[in-house]
Amino acid sequence: MKIIKQYKKLVLAVGIIALASCAHEDQPNESYLDFTQKVKTPLDIWIDQNYIDPYNISVQYEWNQNVIEQNRFLYPPAIEKVQPALEIIKKIWIDSYSVIGGKDFVKIIAPRDFVLVGGVNVNPDDVSNTLGLAEGGKRISLFQVDYVNKSNRASVTQFVHTIQHEYVHILNQTKPFDVESWAKITPNDYSSNPFSISDTEARKLGFISAYARSNYTEDFAETAAIILLMSKAEYDALLASITVPAAVTAIKKKEAIVVQYYRDAFNIDFYALRDEAQKNTTAVLNN
Prior knowledge:
Blueprint: H1 2-23, H2 42-55, E1 58-60, H3 79-101, H4 105-108, E2 113-116, E3 121-122, E4 129-130, E5 132-135, E6 139-142, H5 153-174, H6 179-183, H7 199-203, H8 216-229, H9 232-240, H10 245-266, H11 270-286
Parallel strand pairs: 1-2, 2-6
Antiparallel strand pairs: 3-4, 5-6
């Protein structure tokens, strides 16, 4: 018992010495962290009003090396290109889904972060470009923002293709599509090198685009996205241009699965969504 008491006294003495030593050390006078709030620009306020407040979607347009691939030659978008690009996305994607799916549809199911990149994301094959990336259903990176022309239909359609395609992936992560039925339609022509053939050649195999040949999930997303990018007349013309009847049948079977998926999973009329997107695309071009 005596030994224990002596031990406690020794520990107490060491503690007092340590405190006395610390008291003589130089103490920091101020924090080196910058807690200054960023002054919001008119663009920031517009993003708050049109993305963050109503949909809880943030937008990164300033350079952040932590969210961009370091092995690609990429750069931030020109400031004057940011709002026009976001206006296109809001009108054609958000507004269309909000009208047909319900005003809260995008609020509930959406990426929570957009990363905008000005430059072209050239792939290592030096043949294709990556137009967008969806990461875990939470973040979508959009490339080539500096090249979007709101008065050019092809430019607008290419840019919207990215968000329409990536959003289908997000919907699939929420509720999966019928992969088993899909896999039976064109089981033998998927490829790890889809761009080895053109879109025209891919359509002869029963794929709506060359990229659709990548795998089942990309095929589903491409089929849905490309139909949403076209009017009914344009889509009918695309099917009419395919010279292989079996390929047309295959694409129509895939279309039917997409339509059923939207109806059963989300109670959305897919063709009404397409028509709304077309109406809003025309509004963008005429604005």
